[in-house]
Amino acid sequence: MSQMDPKDLDVVPAPEELPSSLGGLMRGKRVLMTGVANDRSIAWAIAQAFQREGAELAFTYPGEAMEKRVRPLAEGIGAKAIIDCDVSKDEDIDRSVAELRKVWDRVDVLVHSIGYAPRGALDGRFTEVTTRDAWRITMDVSAYSLIGLARAFRPMMPAGSSIVTLTYYGAEKVVRNYNVMGVAKAALEASMRYLAEDLGQDGIRVNAISAGPIKTLAAAGIKGMRTMLGENAAKTPLRRNVDQEDCASAALYLCSPLGRNVTGEVLHVDAGQNILGVVSME
Ligand SMILES: NC(=O)c1ccc[n+]([C@@H]2O[C@H](COP(=O)([O-])OP(=O)(O)OC[C@H]3O[C@@H](n4cnc5c(N)ncnc54)[C@H](O)[C@@H]3O)[C@@H](O)[C@H]2O)c1
Q1: 0.85 exceeded by the pTM?
Q2: pLDDT at 279
Q3: Any idea what DSSP says for residue 166?
Q4: Closest ligand 1 atom to 38 CA
Q5: How confident is residue 4, by pLDDT bands cut at 50, 70 and 90?
Q6: Which fold has domain 25-271?
Q7: Considering 168, 169, 194, 253, which one is annotated as catalytic?
Q8: Domains of the chain, residue spans
Q9: pLDDT digits (tens, 9 = 90+) for 217-226
Q10: How far is the CA of 282 from the centre of ligand 1 (A)?
Q11: Closest ligand 1 atom to 168 CA
Q12: Which of 142, 118, 148, 140 is nearest to 130 (CA)?
């Protein structure tokens, strides 16, 4: 391992294969997926895993430009609805509920896999690049949207249903250049806990998956991501990075009956990165 070229470290495979089937773990569940942008999206891996396990799926996308990318993927997987929903607009969220009601009378799982920060906010000194606008937009799209979606879809969610969101370690500790997105992820995780307490009385569970760094469209906007992937893989306790399928496995656990008594939890899927303090590279 120590002889490996650092640029190859992000592809060190896990020693075990994932099972190809879990026997229909999500059979009959109706799942609303947000956050698919392309076939590298974490949400896309979750959608595929849920579908493989018997779930019915519906998808949202924010605006026409994204529709071109999302529609072919969603149609290819037999989506029951494909809905335009920019989560920064209340009217879009409300219309999404109305549109989904045309095909489904309930939603069993809501996957929130959305993050956005304005250009420039994730590159440079925190003091300088965290403008009022960068703060407002990042917090609104990346954190408030979980609450907005939960409020809107709660009436469609029966007891036993669940919500899962995606977060990152930058919520807990400082990760250089993650900047205001780290602040938004901290707000997202706190919101997840408040929602879990509030919606628990309705039998709805709310959890978060804290994923290690993965090469996706959203991640490409973070300065130094490539270097971080290499360094991260060398340092994590498992000496590798995670991938989209690892997040999908965690989502299967949290959103299926396997997770029936788990709520308000941040499940780290990060090859153990979050347990580390100072790591010597000797
Ligand atoms: N990739 C990583 O390293 C990593 C690690 C930990 C957590 N995450 C989180 O995982 C989630 C998914 O990101 P990803 O890495 O799969 O990248 P991605 O770019 O594939 O997904 C981000 C999604 O957010 C959506 N989005 C942005 N603004 C929106 C808006 N106004 N309304 C509705 N949707 C909007 C985009 O359309 C896109 O589908 C994000 O919350 C991200 O912060 C990613």
Answers
A1: yes
A2: 80
A3: E
A4: 20
A5: very low
A6: Rossmann fold (3.40.50)
A7: 168
A8: 25-271
A9: 999 888 888 8
A10: 35
A11: 6
A12: 118
